[in-house]
Amino acid sequence: MNELGRLEDLPPDYVQALRAQNLVPLWPSLRAVLPPGKPRPNTRPTHWPYQALRPLLLQAGELTPMEKAERRVLVLANPGHGLEKMQASAAMYLGMQLLLPGEWAPSHRHTPNAVRMVVEGEGAWTNVDGEKCPMQRGDLILTPTGLWHDHGHDGTEPVVWLDVLDLPLVHYMEASYHVDGPRQSVKPGHGERAWLRGGVVPMPVFQRSAQAYPLLRYPWTETRAALQSLAADQPELQAVQVGYVNPETGAAAQNILGFYALMLRPGQTLRLPVRSPACVFHLIEGAAQARIEGESFTLAEADTCCAPGYSEVSLANTSASAPAFIFIADETPLHQKLGVFENRD
Ligand SMILES: [Fe+2]
Known about the structure:
Layout: H1 12-20, H2 30-33, E1 46-48, H3 50-63, H4 66-69, E2 73-75, E3 93-99, E4 104-110, E5 114-120, E6 124-128, E7 131-135, E8 140-143, E9 149-153, E10 159-165, H5 167-172, E11 178-180, H6 191-195, E12 217-218, H7 220-233, E13 240-243, E14 258-264, E15 269-272, E16 279-285, E17 288-292, E18 295-299, E19 304-307, E20 313-317, E21 324-330, H8 332-338
Antiparallel strand pairs: 1-19, 2-3, 3-10, 4-9, 4-11, 5-8, 5-10, 6-7, 6-9, 8-12, 13-14, 14-21, 15-20, 16-19, 16-21, 17-18, 17-20
The structure holds fe (ii) ion.
């Protein structure tokens, strides 16, 4: 491959003349924007142990009252992007959010899509588009683009959840904004009562629902049971994995990021295919080891780590007796919609 000319090979007054006209020569930067063979990601394999994060998050509860925070969140920032960018990968933002008993995170809506993966505590709820969703460990709750949401807490202990948003992408597109609103009234009924049974969907007088997001809460008890049934009934399955989908369309639950739950059998090691999207792994239950591009992270419960796209990843259950359950978020729907998705296996 040819060595291309560098900026310093050009006469300084020529570079200055270009700059004065808002012009830039491409060739000194060509290899950086079109590297050979595969991308050079800023996203680095990074591990956020919950044991280190938790006391700092609880301290935020003492230091900053809710009215000064609106959302009391410590962002899991990838150092490869620079911490101030507040992104885990090119398209994913991760935050650990704390809500104390009696607190209320006021109602708003925004263009980025969000989901919550509940980490600890009982008694909190998220009201999404008038549907009051209880928050229990391992539950996945959607707050898709444009839907009003607020968070409240009627319990007695702190509640923590992991937020996953497509904020970096929507912000990069200069399409990110929010609107504050009044406290939302709660409607009767829950999507999960109508849509959570596989194989049947509500179809009154032969009409399918026109709701874009009919199912907002995916209870962990159901997801975990689905994984255990798969594992028990299909012992030959190498990867016991489910995806969170929109029950009306069968497509990914949200437009930009994909969400999955994986069960590793006792002692199992699973090598993932080399794929273009970046991935986030959050250990719901058990003990695991993640190997990402040769780096090894020991995951305890509630730990989170991320892998850049195009990387070699393997996940191992380090317990010989208990299963491990991992929540995965990735950029697959985005890559597929843009036509840049690759699986190199
Ligand atoms: Fe929000």
